[in-house]
Every structure is written in structure tokens, then in C-alpha cells.
Amino acid sequence: MREKLRYALIGCGRIAPNHIAAYGNNAEELALCAVCDPVPERMEAVLRPLTEEERTHVRRYTDHRELLAKEAPQLCAVATESGLHAQVGLDVLRAGSNVIIEKPLALSLADARALIDEADARGLKLCACHQNRFNKSIQKIRTAVEEKRFGRMLHGTVHVRWNRGEEYYRQAPWRGTWAMDGGALMNQCIHSIDLLRWMLGDGVTEVMAYTDNLSHPYIQAEDLGMALVRFESGAYGIVEGTTNVYPHNLEETLYLFGENGTVKAGGKSVNIIEEWDFRDGRGDPATIKMQFGENPPNVYGYGHTPLYADVIAAIREDRAPYVDGRAGMRALELVLAIYRSAAEHRPVRLPLTDCATTDFEGRFGR
């Protein structure tokens, strides 16, 4: 039996339980050596699902640098506030550990490039945690894309129609700030923006957008974003993202329209296939909808477990992760391009040379 990888979790907030669950589902490959958070109670809460014996072997740290120096982990997950992802991720890489970084990879393109360059220079694996790529529905759709069943892709759309109220933002004051987060597009919608870019060919030439803050006066960033995206292939994309839906999360959907196929992934987090229609007639749509749908307990879905399994395999096999740092930077770039287009009231050409969320401080007068 091969030796397990020493694993540590840095950041024990809202998404941390999914990382602990993913660790547990990959426990034959991972040994949890430590967790880190400035608030000790959060560490205890995230470790609660483990057995008492497991918990006794996990060291607790309030400083991630101390953890890295004392524990020498081989794989770390960074689930801190978004604005700390880049610096903590760089610290992890410089300590010699592979890293999974929660979305977004960073809040500036300069920081994203620094992470990629550091990982490349050290021969380490850098994974951007876009776990929805591993949804059964999304994997099935991606297979159809790779098999070119759509023919020429015409356009695709993503819609994230969710609710986030004042209580959510008061729980963590960094949320909704330009320095540490961004708004609905960067925080809630970036997973779907990643999927749109991935499915339509990654190459984007131009973006036109509007963003606004309509009903969240206590945050700095947007609660609504709408964008039209032109791809190098000639296909178009539409992005609609909001946290204003009353009274709770409604849906996260992905539509793809090609000359030979139409697909819709829906549900709370693109976890079910609602439309499946191809000219080639392969596969029974009703069977496909039944086989490739999931009903996760929350919008985070089940994707963290297979994402972890892939990163472990990437380390063992010395290959790139399925969702590497460059994929994370592409999603970040598209969000930042939307922000810039909306702020400057003009189309924005890609690639961007540099951009950061802090470029938009004061955008909505706060």
C-alpha cells in the first residue's frame, strides 16, 4: 500500500465542509495532518464530522505559515477569503506543496499569473476549484462537445438566479468588497462563467456588459451582471448573474445551441440535464436525463470529491490537473473583462493585459 499524501486545509469557512468531505471520500490517498483558521471555533466545527480518533491526529493552527513550516504538507486546499487566495497559494507553493485554490483563483490577473509561474517553476500542481466541471451532467455535455456532436456551436447562455441577503454579508464582512471579493459575478457566478468559456472554446475576443447594485446597499460590488461575449469561433455567449432573486435560490442553468444539437443543464447548480436533443439521434434523451442527473443538498454539489481524486492522480502521475491554474485564470479574466466593460461603458477586447477587482473601487458610490 502506497504512502498517503500529507494534506492540510487552510480556511475553515462556509465552503470548508465540502473540502473535509472530499478528503474523507479520498481518505485512502490522503492523511489530514492539519487545519488552519484564525478563528479556533471554525476549525472545531469543520472537524466535527470526523471520528474522535481522527480529530486527535489533526493539528490546529491560526497562522498558515506556521502550519507550512511545521507540517510540510504535500497537498493543501486554500479556502480562505477570496482576497487572500493568491498570497496564501503562493506561500503554499513556496513551501513545496501542491495546492487546490477555491474560486476565484485570485482577484487580479497579475496574481493569477504569479501563481501559475510559481507552480510551473517548482513542478507543483495548481488546481482551481471549479468543481461543477465534475457534475455528471456537465461531464456528459462535455463529452458531446468533444465528440463534436453539436457541429458548429452557435451560442450558449448561463443564468445564475440566486438569493443572497444581508445576513449572508454580515456573517463575513469581506464579502461584497472590491479588495477581498467582488460581487455576484466573481463570487456566485464564476463557476458558470467558467463552464461557458470551457464549452464554447475558451478563446474570447470581445465582451460588452452592464453591472449594477440594485438591492444590496451594504456591499460595494454588483448584485446584477449581464454580458454579451463573442468567441473566436464566431459563437456568442450570454451571461446573466444575480443575487437579487426573491425569496431564495432559483436556478443555475447552462444552455448550448449548435447547428446539430441543443442541451440545457439546470437545477440549483447545473446538476441535471433538462434538454438533450441531437440530430444524430444517439442515446435516448429520457434515459440520459435520468442517468446524468444529481440532487445535491446545496449549490456546491458533489464535485469536490472527484476534483480531489483528479488532483491526487495528477500528483501521482505527474500530469496537469483537469482544472489547472490556467483554467482558473481564464474564468477570472472573463469576469474582470465584464467588470471593465460595464465600468467604462464600452466593448472590451481580450486578452486583458492586467486587471484587478480593486480597479473598480467606488464603482457604485461605496
Q: What's this entry about, in short?
A:
With 366 residues, the chain is α/β, with parallel strands linked by helices.
What report would you give on this structure?
- The protein is α/β, with parallel strands linked by helices and 366 residues long.
- It has two domains: 5-132 and 302-323, NAD(P)-binding Rossmann-like Domain (Rossmann fold); 133-299 and 330-360, 2-Layer Sandwich (Dihydrodipicolinate Reductase, domain 2).
- It has helices spanning 16-25, 40-47, 52-56, 64-71, 85-94, 109-122, 136-146, 166-171, 184-187, 190-199, 285-291, 304-317, 325-344, and strands spanning 5-10, 30-36, 59-61, 75-78, 98-102, 126-129, 153-161, 204-212, 224-231, 236-242, 251-258, 261-266, 272-278, 348-349.
- It has an eight-stranded mixed β-sheet. It has a six-stranded parallel β-sheet with strand order 3-2-1-4-5-6, with helices on both faces.
- Helix 5 links the parallel strand 4 (75-78) and strand 5 (98-102).
- The longest helix has 20 residues, at 325-344.
- It is globular and about 55 Å long.
- The mean pLDDT is 96.
Characteristic terms for this protein:
eight-stranded mixed beta sheet, six-stranded parallel beta sheet, Rossmann fold, Dihydrodipicolinate Reductase, domain 2, globular, alpha/beta, 366 residues, 35% helix, 23% strand
Identify low-pLDDT runs. none
Number of helices: 13
**CATH superfamily annotation of the largest domain:** Dihydrodipicolinate Reductase, domain 2
Distance between the termini: 56 Å
- Name of the CATH first level of the largest domain: Alpha Beta
Tally of structural domains: 2
Would you list the SSEs in sequence order as H and E?
A: EHEHHEHEHEHEHEHHHEEEEEEHHHE
Q: Report the β-strand fraction as a percent range.
A: 15-25%
Mean pLDDT: 96
What sort of overall outline do the alpha carbons produce when their principal axes are compared? Answer: globular
The largest sheet, given as strand count, sense and whether it forms a barrel, is:
8 strands, mixed
